[in-house]
Amino acid sequence: MDINGPLSDPFFGAIKLGSDDAAKALGINYQYVAATDEKNVVADYTRLLQESIGRHPAAMVVGDFVPSAFDPLIKQAVDAGIPVVIVNSGADSWQNVGALTYVGENALVTGEAAGTFAAKAGVHHLVCVNHVAGNPQLNQRCQGAQMTLSQAGGTSTVLNIPTADSGNPAAVQQDIQGFLTAHPETDGVLTLGSGIATDAQAAIKAIGKTGQIKLGTTDVSTAVLQAVKSGDISFDMDQQAYLQGFLSLEIAFQYLKYGIYPTQPIATSGLVISKENVDKALAVQQQYPGSRGAR
Amino acid sequence: MEERPMVTSLGEPGDSASVDPEQRLGNPSVISRLVRAPEFGAAAAAILIYGFFSITSSGRLLTLDATAGWLDTAAYLGIIAVPVGMLMIAGEFDLSIGSMVGAGSISVGVIAGALNQPLPLAVGFAFLFAIAIGVCNGLLVTRTGLPSFIVTLGTNLVVAALALTLSRQLANTTTITVYTSGLLSQLFSSQWKSFGISILWWVLILVIAAWVLRYTRFGNWILATGGDAERARRAGVMTSRVKIILFVCTALAATLVGVSQAVQYNTGDAVGGQGYVFQAPIVVVIGGVLLTGGYGTMLGVALGTAIYGVADAGLFYTGWNTDWAQGVTGSLLILTVLTNNTLRRLAVSALKPE
After folding, report:
1. How far, in Å, CA of A132 to CA of B157, rounded?
2. In chain B, which residues have their Cβ closer than 8 Å to the Cβ of A175?
3. Over the stretch A131-169, which tens digit does the pLDDT of each residue have?
4. What are phi and psi of A26, to 5 degrees?
5. Residue in A with minimal Cα distance to B114
6. By the CB < 8 Å criterion, does B325 face chain A?
7. Which pLDDT belongs to residue B105?
């Protein structure tokens, strides 16, 4: 049983691809359960968790997206004798709930790495664009970037995109464009999703500052990889969704069969894709569409 | 009680659709005529909002790039808002536009991107699908008598699920990078400086709609259908046909936005566009169209869209904290509509003989 993010988000498509491949390779049956959208995470996912516990699967792989709401239910699953692997989100909470281990991103570390990279690229005034205000992971990424940049002597702000604009590239571009025009000292933009990165790229181009404003992002898509190759995007933090999907299922399988599991959390985040290693990532994405993020 | 003019006269094309109380009362003052115009409140708000953000952004909103920027966002919203406005004048809602944007966008992504087929095929498919959904919405509403609010809320979810399932089946993802070229691609993504071609689409659709509503028999039928469908039907208006055609128009417009954005931003996105579900009716209502139907103009809808575009973008040009951006839009909605209604009521009561 795999309770994970909405498949309307291509990031989780890559996670499912990894899980599918693991299930095939290991010859196991599993079910991927997800809500249809990410606007109502708490209510939708607590319901999914309850239903899944009720079906008493051999093991559960769970994304701990909102620990305050999910943790009591995950504990309940553990107490009911279901081994649980936490995947993707839950770097700080996996031990509290009695899970076997954690595979995924440490959002703070991702942000710190992004901030370090931005500082190295010469950024002094960074804006972190958060397109899902209230998402703890995204907040942590911004915090991490702000922390390391301020240690390097830079300043930073967070720009929240209104919910109504978030699925509309024209509006997102316009919001970022307006901010950059109002804050002409900004020389770095960090976005937290591959689609938003493309919109930010268009905004920077529209005000004629391509190259002057350094753009970095988290999450991968073909468009982002191509922009990294062309130099329009300086760096891309890849948390390797496919790996999260594959490893989490494999760990659950090996625990059930042999009783073995990794005793420390497995970090899949912190990989930086820049001009040096983008060609390999692009080649993989072309050969296995969707495995390195949105195609 | 209700002071809105009832629109039930069914004359030849060119006839004034509304029986103006002023005409019976002789010579109304210019001011009361102006104030009573459905777009008066919107026009006043547009000037105020534009002036406000021009000053608070230290003139940054007035630059060419910024103008192109907010016009571009307004254009995409406006392309959808025009037929939504027509449909609301005819007394119906269409909430399925959100998913139609995503469906149009992902059609380009899957067919032209993942499957490497020519763009015209993708666009043709998207528009055929739109016609099918529009007809489906129209038939469901007119045959079952269910509120269009419910029917289109349902189709919005069904279409969203279709787009999601098919794109995941065919391409294993819901966001697809796609680079297009050729004449058709330019038709959706050309730019002059930073002005996008979507602005031209918006103006074109707006002009056609305004002309249809004011000068054609079909326009009269729309007003009559929204004013009093039962009386209109007895007078020989094919209200069902009016509604079905308008549902097709809203679906086509939403698809046009989805296709254009996919081509312009090189990304087909199955789940984008849901913001329009509320934004389109909001700007239509800001523009003076009555929620109950039967009354409104396309100039008002255009002004409402411009207000939304400026308000949505303007705050980002001020440099202030933008966390309150949605609050500005919300307050604006209430204030404009309140002003609209109050002015109209004052003007109408001033005209009464007593």
Report:
1. 22
2. 312-313, 316, 322, 325
3. 987 778 899 999 999 999 999 999 999 999 988 888 899
4. -95, -10
5. A295
6. yes
7. 95
B chain contacts of residue A173, beta-carbon cutoff 8 Å:
69
Distances (CA, A) of A111 to A115, A172, A271, B147: 6, 21, 11, 48
Q: DSSP class of residue B111?
A: I
CA closest to B161 among chain A residues: A36
Of B297, B282, B273, B264, which Cα lies nearest the Cα of B337? B282
State ipTM: 0.78
The pLDDT value recorded for residue B8 is: 44
User: Both ends of chain A: CA-CA distance in Å?
Assistant: 26
Give B131-198 as a 3 state SS string: HHHHHHHHHHHHHHCCCHHHHHHHHHHHHHHHHHHHHHHHHCCCEEECCCCCHHHHHHHCEECCEECH
Query: Percent of chain B having pLDDT more than 90?
Result: 57
CB distance A168–B325 less than 8 Å? Answer: no
Is the pLDDT at B324 greater than 90, yes or no? no
Across the interface, do A181 and B317 touch by the CB < 8 Å criterion? yes
Q: How confident is the model at residue A37, as a pLDDT?
A: 66
Question: Hey, which residues 274-293 in chain B have their CB within 8 Å of chain A?
Answer: 274-276, 278-279
DSSP letters of A85-112? EEEES-TTTTTTTT-S-EEE--HHHHHH
**Token pair listed for A10:** 């291509």
Can you list the positions of beta strands (E) in A113-267?
125-130, 155-160, 188-191, 214-218, 235-238, 266-267
Query: Do B316 and A290 count as a contact with CB atoms less than 8 A apart?
Result: no
Q: Is the pTM here over 0.90, yes or no?
A: no
Indicate if the pLDDT at residue B10 is higher than 70. no
Cα–Cα dist A205/B95, whole Å: 34
Distance from CA of A158 to the nearest CA of B (A): 9
> Is the separation of the CB atoms in B232 and B89 below 8 Å?
no
| Residues of chain A found within 8 Å of residue B279, distances taken between Cβ atoms | 164
* Chain B residues 139-178 with a CB less than 8 Å from chain A: 160-161, 164, 168, 171-177
Calculate mean pLDDT across residues B66-70. Answer: 91
Which of B67, B173, B310 to mutate to test binding with chain A, by most A CBs within 10 Å of its CB? B173
> Is B313 in the A-facing interface, judged by CB distances under 8 Å?
yes
Instruction: Tell me the percentage of chain A whose pLDDT exceeds 70.
Output: 99
